[in-house]
Amino acid sequence: MPPSVAFVFAMPMELAPLARTLSLEKRSAGGQARWFGQLGRRPVVAIVTGMGTALATAGVERLLAETEVDRVVVVGITGAIHEETPIGTLIRPSVVIDGATGTEYRPEPLGLVAPDGVMWTSDSLITDPDTLARLRGDGVVSLDMETAAVAAVCVGRGIPWTVIRAISDRATDGSVDEEVFRLSNQDGTPNAKAVAAFVLRHPGRLPAMARMAKGARLATERSVEAAVAAVSGLDDGPD
Fold first, then answer.
1. Contact (CB, 8 A) for 90 and 168
2. Which strand (E) or helix (H) includes residue 9?
3. What's this model's pTM, rounded to 2 decimal places?
4. Domains (range + CATH), the chain
5. How far apart are CA 127 and CA 203, in angstroms?
6. Alpha-carbon torsion (187, 192, 197, 203), positive or negative
7. 76, 9 Cβ separation under 8 angstroms
């Protein structure tokens, strides 16, 4: 069997449209859940790493150590740092920067859309106006918490990688703060107790939360749709 294309997600909700579209089969290998299927003639595998650089590193390292993969595609949602960026906008950066080290990673182009802009990966939630202004001045268009970590693993193994994410929220509009961020567990699943407590404390914020959830669903669907289209455009691979 030829090597697989690996789709890497941080959260289960990001994987769901791909699993549905490709009718992926879930299997567990040594404690790591993986989803397998076909995209045309290409075998594909998908994983959910959880949120943050440490989990992303561990998840991708394990996958690549145990599965033959010839390309990695990071898919999911990302936060805009420009107020005018529409929700659902696709982000295919030309550079991904590890905010902790300053290391720059350059994804391999995939599909017909030329990469553009800078994505900033950090384990910290960034909402400070001065920091956001500085990042905008450096050409940063979006923020995430996993891509640079995935890139580092791929570069270390000599495996081509790319990232196709979509805007789900804006760091400038106050929709995501530390309290909202902690409504999710580190594995990307909802924290039911935190959500219930949040609703009791902030009933007036429910309409904004509903809009944010709608934006996340839109961004997730668009990122998966774009990733599937891009991978479908690859050659058919060996017979």
1. no
2. strand 4-9
3. 0.91
4. 4-173+214-232 (3.40.50.1580)
5. 23
6. positive
7. yes
